[in-house]
């Protein structure tokens, strides 16, 4: 059973203590008797304990850094939204395939930012620029924000902020089931709450440190009952022995957990497994025993937008994955919308 994340070690940027949330978190961690250290910047945390890379990496993943987000220029987001909104960076999960492993590089620790009102003000400016068009913000591009929110309640604050917005919407995705504190947030239907789900084989072998599928689905049921629009990301879609049956079972379980009402407005996003050469090196270093299939010869190379190519499945395999998953979605959730397959 995955318990809510509690850091083993916490660093504070001195500037973070000038914000109410920074002070509140410091008091909270002192009461919990967690070791507190200080760092000049959330980007410069050095001397983490550990005798070798393996130990240092695992300690980093249980270290929380409380800082101030100085850059309030938001990145344009993935296909799911116009902008990424930065409340946190890093994740306590240990998903072998995760792209954060390469983007985080030498900083796998978790960062949370306490200047929440400044971040929300910046979001409002982006919304005003595009109004009356809708502007969607993705809060989980560089983190699993739900995984840390039971400590910070930043996400809850953001949900309520967007609940009052006329032209702004929020969305995020999680692999954790610790959602109870978010159920009474005044979201006004303006936040789409998404869960990342997968076949049991993928979760068991490649997603240690995250909630099991049944817990995620149970949480999705609660979220739907709290009136949130709901979505599911099936990622990475991974070919393994019995994958057809594995993904079918996943859809069956999902169907059992959702009320008829929740099925009226569902979105799905399908992302096939992919990796880059740098990612492969990092994955093999961080998870030397992984069973993850990373054989370039069996994949096709697809050039990326930013000049970094990735290895994805062959055309016929990709088509089979797409057809199979789409047919399951149609069978169990005929009213759902597929936002993209990539």
TrEMBL record:
Cofactor: [4Fe-4S] cluster; S-adenosyl-L-methionine
CC per GO annotation: endospore-forming forespore
Alphabetical list of CDD domains matching this protein: Radical_SAM
Function: Involved in repair of UV radiation-induced DNA damage during spore germination. Can repair thymine dimer 5-thyminyl-5,6-dihydrothymine (known as spore photoproduct (SP)) by in situ monomerization of SP to two thymines.
Protein name (record): Spore photoproduct lyase
Domain named Radical SAM core: residues: 77-305
Reaction(s) the record says it catalyses: (5R)-5,6-dihydro-5-(thymidin-7-yl)thymidine in DNA = a thymidine dimer in DNA
Entry-linked PANTHER family: SPORE PHOTOPRODUCT LYASE (PTHR37822:SF2), SPORE PHOTOPRODUCT LYASE-RELATED (PTHR37822)
Family: Belongs to the radical SAM superfamily. SPL family.
Quaternary structure and interacting proteins, as annotated: Monomer or homodimer.
Molecular functions per Gene Ontology: 4 iron, 4 sulfur cluster binding; DNA binding; DNA photolyase activity; metal ion binding; S-adenosyl-L-methionine binding
Keyword terms, alphabetized: 4Fe-4S, DNA damage, DNA repair, DNA-binding, Iron, Iron-sulfur, Lyase, Metal-binding, S-adenosyl-L-methionine, Sporulation
EC number in record: 4.1.99.14
UniProt-listed GO biological process terms: DNA repair; sporulation resulting in formation of a cellular spore
Alphabetized NCBIfam families for the sequence: photo_TT_lyase
Organism whose genome encodes this protein: Rossellomorea aquimaris
């Amino acid at each position: 059973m995955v318990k809510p994340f509690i850091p083993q070690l916490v660093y504070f940027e001195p500037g973070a203590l000038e914000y109410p949330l920074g002070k509140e978190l410091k008091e909270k961690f002192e009461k919990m008797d967690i070791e507190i250290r200080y760092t000049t910047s959330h980007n410069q945390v050095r001397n983490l304990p550990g005798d070798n890379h393996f130990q240092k990496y695992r300690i980093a993943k249980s270290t929380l850094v409380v800082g101030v987000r100085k850059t309030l220029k938001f990145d344009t987001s993935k296909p799911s939204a116009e902008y990424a909104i930065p409340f946190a960076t890093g994740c306590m999960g240990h998903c072998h395939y995760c792209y954060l492993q390469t983007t985080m590089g030498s900083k796998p620790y978790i960062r949370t930012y306490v200047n929440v009102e400044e971040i929300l003000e910046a979001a409002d400016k982006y919304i005003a620029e595009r109004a009356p068009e809708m502007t969607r913000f993705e809060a989980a591009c560089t983190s699993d924000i739900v995984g840390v929110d039971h400590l910070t309640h930043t996400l809850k604050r953001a949900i309520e902020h967007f609940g009052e917005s006329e032209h702004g919407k929020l969305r995020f995705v999680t692999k954790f089931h610790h959602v109870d504190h978010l159920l009474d947030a005044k979201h006004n239907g303006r936040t789409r709450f998404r869960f990342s789900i997968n076949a049991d084989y993928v979760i068991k072998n490649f997603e240690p440190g995250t909630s099991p599928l049944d817990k995620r689905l149970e949480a999705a049921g609660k979220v739907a009952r709290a009136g949130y629009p709901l979505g599911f990301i099936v990622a990475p879609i991974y070919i393994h022995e019995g994958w057809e049956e594995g993904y079918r079972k996943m859809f069956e379980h999902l169907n059992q957990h959702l009320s008829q009402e929740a099925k009226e407005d569902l979105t799905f996003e399908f992302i096939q497994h992919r990796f880059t050469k740098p990612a492969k090196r990092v994955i093999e270093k961080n998870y030397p025993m992984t069973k993850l299939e990373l054989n370039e010869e069996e994949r096709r190379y697809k050039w990326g937008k930013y000049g970094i190519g990735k290895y994805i499945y062959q055309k016929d395999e990709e088509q089979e994955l797409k057809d199979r998953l789409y047919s399951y979605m149609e069978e169990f959730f005929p009213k759902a919308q597929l936002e993209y397959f990539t």
